[in-house]
Amino acid sequence: MRFKKSIIALGLFVGLSTSCNKFLDVVPDNAPVLDQAFAMRTMAERYLVTCYSQLPQSFSMTNNPGWLSGDEFWLNSESTYSGYFNWRIALGNQNGDNPLLNAWDGNNGATNLWVGITNCNTFLDNIMSVPDMTDEEKQMWISEVKFLKAYYHFLLMKQYGPVPIRDKNIPIYDSPGSSQLPRNSIDECFNYVVSMIDESIPNLMDDVTAVNSETGRITKIVAKAMKAEILVYAASPLFNGNVGTEASIKNSDGKELFNHTYSVEKWQLAAKACKEAIDFATEHGKKLHTWTPTGGFTPQASTQFQMNIREAYNENTDNPEVLWLDTKSTANGTIQGYFMLPRYTANATSGTLLGFMSATINIVEKFYSNNGVPIEEDITYPYTSRFDLITVPNTDAYKYDLVAGKQTARMNLNRENRFYGTLMFDAGRVFMLQAGSDANAYNIDLKYSGSSGKVDPTRFNWTGYASKKHYNYRSTVGASNAYTARLFGHPIIRLANLYLYYAEALNETNGPSAEAYSYIDAVRTRSGLKGVVESWQNYSSAPNKPATKDGLREIIKRERTNEFALEGVRFWDLRRWKDAVKELNNPILGWDINQSSEGSYYRTTLLYTRSFMDRDYFWPLSLNERRRNPNLVQSAGW
């Protein structure tokens, strides 16, 4: 694998809305130019930015597999969205010759992660020669780059499973065979990644001190949090004792690439790392985010709970929950418009807001009832009639979330606050600062003739549900229909993620415990739910589920689904749990959005019958890469 190295002259870690676009190409064997790149601190700083530059952009609608490759979002037309490589994976168009979102080769919508690793190795080989830097600053930069190199390896592992470890660059004058590396085993890969992060941690800054100029840089908080996540992956069924067909590959010399014996010790390591990360983050002021009302009114308790979850995701200012923020791409007005419904106010026109990122009924059904248990388990919930029409009662219990007197599906009533804080739907409401108060929230009409219905002929909501999480409530619509978006970056990891990882690791290590319950309950309490044990005992048809390891595992999975719904997390969780074959073979459902009357609109409509096979747990290697490197074995099933 040979790569051209480039230095990208960017404004270093500037605010979310600014960047530079100058480029300086540097050829690896051109010694004078490479020496110049590390001749002084300012040039070395540019190369440091280059090491960050291959991080994937979370808010790339076409390239982030978490957005559209799973079952949370769906689109309305294969022709209109033919360039959405992530959705084409969901449609079953992945292939072994020219793979979609090919991060190995850097094509079909993906960033080349090997280029990132190569840039990191070049930086590490040369940084000590910079004359006008202190050793302390050099060691901090070295630690950032060591983390990035480890993280790029991990991103490749998430997609491809076992990968070759590229700890050093291969000199350009070496024989061609020296670059034809075989895959390392998955345990070797995880051990390498974790060891690199461990090496990086001591010399990193604890947390950013200059928020405007340093946000996005690697800190101890980031490194500890990501180490915890990586060890959770290493302990999860896809990588720990996997005996499935997708883990059957061997190198040409017969070397096993997956371990086939389950190890509880991996969960113990994950639990320890999660607790260390939580404690360190807490010591440095991190906590679960809660919304602070503005505008001089007292909100309903339900509004507080719903805004807590909305802002935990989409508010970057004074948000103590975000541990690592993606500053490479931000949800600007255009991107927010992909999620936001047209004319959610009288002035928000379809030309500004398109709302074509449609949430599926599949994810809608995952949210709990207002009693904090799954709707299919709640002994008080009319689950069998959930699709029936019902008129929204004119009572305080509903007026902040639903339009009184309107007809809607029964499943939109009596749901948890994360449901109403995450989803937009017909006869629902959305609270924005511009409305003045939660009582003046905007009403939504998504039927064909409705104000937010099928307005644009090609880009429109296809399921009847949209993401409220991508509505920053401070965004506004002016009298001239101008939409002004409050920008926000995507949280790569937030503290709630660590809480649920820790509970999961504790349960897998020793089964249910008071400590595991406490971290789950902290996340639930933030959204207005009672504790796990109390909720299941009082309302579930399986009241003892939290008391068993299998039962609590199922609960934790559902908690993660609901807490991080529409954030791109579920796609990866289903893989590491090996639940994708079960979940991603379910048909994609929505309402009949081409209808104007409630009786016709509220009919479940089959939008797509999708297929997920064992081989789909990992990406295939391209035909070109296998020709370049005959020592690489193809992923199983491809």
Textual characterization of the structure:
The chain is 36% helix and 8% strand. The protein is built from 22 helices and 16 strands. It has helices at 31-37, 41-52, 65-68, 85-90, 113-126, 135-160, 186-200, 211-214, 220-235, 264-283, 301-314, 333-339, 361-364, 417-422, 495-510, 514-526, 532-539, 549-563, 570-576, 580-583, 598-601, 623-628, and strands at 6-9, 22-25, 73-74, 322-330, 358-359, 389-391, 407-409, 423-425, 429-430, 442-443, 465-467, 476-477, 483-484, 489-494, 588-590, 605-608. The strands form eight sheets. A two-stranded antiparallel sheet has the order 1-2. A two-stranded antiparallel ribbon has the order 3-5. A two-stranded antiparallel sheet has the order 4-14. The two termini are 22 Å apart.
Short description:
It is built from 22 helices and 16 strands.
Mean pLDDT: 92
CATH architecture verdict of one domain = Alpha Horseshoe
Q: Ends: how far apart?
A: 22 Å
> Which CATH class of one domain?
Mainly Alpha
Shape: globular
Write the layout of secondary structure elements.
Layout: E1 6-9, E2 22-25, H1 31-37, H2 41-52, H3 65-68, E3 73-74, H4 85-90, H5 113-126, H6 135-160, H7 186-200, H8 211-214, H9 220-235, H10 264-283, H11 301-314, E4 322-330, H12 333-339, E5 358-359, H13 361-364, E6 389-391, E7 407-409, H14 417-422, E8 423-425, E9 429-430, E10 442-443, E11 465-467, E12 476-477, E13 483-484, E14 489-494, H15 495-510, H16 514-526, H17 532-539, H18 549-563, H19 570-576, H20 580-583, E15 588-590, H21 598-601, E16 605-608, H22 623-628
Antiparallel strand pairs: 1-2, 3-5, 4-14, 6-7, 8-11, 9-10, 12-13, 15-16
